[in-house]
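Hi support team,

I submitted a single chain yesterday and got back a structure, but I'm not sure I'm reading the token output correctly. Could someone confirm the output below corresponds to the sequence I sent? I've pasted both exactly as they appear in my results page.

Thanks,
R.
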Amino acid sequence: MASNKITFASILFLTIFTYSNAKLGHLKETELSVYYQDYSGSQNATVIEIPGPSNGALNFSRFGAMFCTDDPITVGFEEGSAVIARGRGLYVTSALDGSNTHVMLSVVFIDGEYKGSTIELYGSDKQFEKVREVAVVGGTGKFRLARGYATFETLYFDTGRSHAIIQSNMTILHY
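Hi R., thanks for writing in. Yes, this is the structure output for that exact sequence:
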């Protein structure tokens, strides 16, 4: 009796797996290079500390500091370049010495070829290294069942305006 249940469960699983694979199509690889326009100061800030610091200055290396972000993501380096997505999420300084943040970020496409799709990024970010890498752990729309990786490199930082431009190169496998 137990072996019949196991056989039935196996057949059911294989049927569902085969059917779902057929609907998804072939695995694709997409490489994207985008630019986060990050503003951590002024009334137009796209990054804020939670809760906000009492003196107004953000401290990205303080253990336990948590930040919420909604950065415009552009196709080019220039500040006025076309915005195709928003980088929305949280990051927390998670190393006692302040060298590491934990990133939970959604790339939400609002225009262009991928409008309505998302890419989910998650992982440990060694924030003081020149090039940092986090995992692509999911996605929606054109990036359904995404996996891969994304690198981040700060190309520009204007301390007076608290404006940084961060290049992200993503390699994404998806259906």
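A quick pointer for reading it: The beta strands are 28-39, 47-50, 66-74, 83-93, 101-109, 118-125, 131-140, 147-158, 163-174. Let us know if anything else looks off.

Best,
Support desk
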